[in-house]
Design a protein that fits this description.
68% of the residues lie in helices and 0% in strands. With 288 residues, the chain is mainly α. The chain has one domain (9-276). The protein is globular and about 55 Å long.
């Protein structure tokens, strides 16, 4: 008899797995590996490592699939970045960076542990139920072979689960009629998203863009004059997460309640170690 998943069990698991995937974006190991192949611009670095699985795509594809970057910011770097390093070269550099990052943040003992091997097995099993339809970033990464080393296999599976949920989330945002910056502004207003300062520094938007998006959201009754969410805005963000959960339920239902609970426990321990090792920049999230 199948035991139903507890409410939000998949989301809780994702919220611990997703940051473990993301550690390499902030890693000096990635900067070192990409600089070695000629990519020195941090924005070009992010676009290249996340898009490389799709091949040498143009700015339109990256803008569509990444969603919350200013299109002009993407166009200044894509597809030019592929003239510096091909997607194959970027993927190899990313693999080296992920290996070094996980070893540095988690320690050699954790990387070689039975717990890591167990986490990799569980996460890969969950990905068996992911589907590629209308999920371009997931579908592209799903064509990449799973590495043999458990810590890299775990990271690969975490990447698939992250992009699977993320692709579905964009569908929900479109249904909620939240454009790229409106989605970021409302997420920031929850206190869980990136700070406005971080968004402006990394996503290419200007202060004027932010103010204009905020004005549109106020007209819809979704945010207050001080930038906080209204009751309607809070309800909308809740609906977005619930619908995202629904579209992303298959991998966690496939893994089962016990498997999800164990994967959540293991990922939580790994993430705590990564945080303690300084995996993420200070002041990246929150309303400030």
């Amino acid at each position: 008899m199948t035991i139903p998943l507890p409410e939000r069990a998949g989301r809780r698991c994702h919220n611990l797995i997703n940051p473990l995937h993301s550690t390499h974006y902030f890693s000096p190991d990635l900067e070192r590996e990409l600089t070695a192949v000629g990519i020195e611009d941090p924005k070009a670095a992010y676009f290249s490592v996340r898009a490389a699985a799709m091949g040498p795509v143009g700015a339109g594809v990256v803008t569509a699939t990444f969603y919350n970057f200013r299109p002009e910011t993407v166009a200044r770097r894509v597809p030019a970045v592929w003239e510096t390093a091909s997607p194959e070269v970027v993927l190899a550099a990313r693999a080296r960076a992920v290996d070094a990052t996980l070893r540095r943040l988690l320690g050699e003992e954790t990387v070689a542990s039975r717990e890591m091997a167990e986490a990799a097995q569980l996460a890969l099993r969950a990905t068996e139920a992911c589907t590629p339809h209308t999920r371009p970033l997931y579908a592209a990464h799903a064509t990449l072979p799973a590495p043999d080393e458990p810590h890299l296999a775990f990271w690969h599976a975490a990447t698939l689960l992250r992009e699977h949920r993320g692709d579905g989330h964009l569908t929900v945002l479109l249904g909620a009629e939240l454009g790229p910056l409106e989605a970021v502004v409302t997420h920031t207003a929850t206190g869980k998203g990136m700070t406005p300062k971080w968004v402006l520094a990394t996503r290419g938007w200007s202060g004027e863009d932010w103010d204009a998006a905020s004005a549109r959201l106020r007209e819809r009754g979704l945010i207050e004059a001080d930038g906080g969410l209204t009751a309607a805005g809070t309800a909308l963000r809740k609906e977005i997460e619930v619908e995202t959960d629904r579209l992303d339920r298959a991998p966690y239902e496939h893994l089962g309640a016990a498997g999800v609970e164990r994967l959540t426990e293991l990922a939580g321990d790994f993430l705590a170690r990564a945080f303690a090792a300084g995996a993420f920049p200070q002041g990246m999230t929150g309303k400030g």
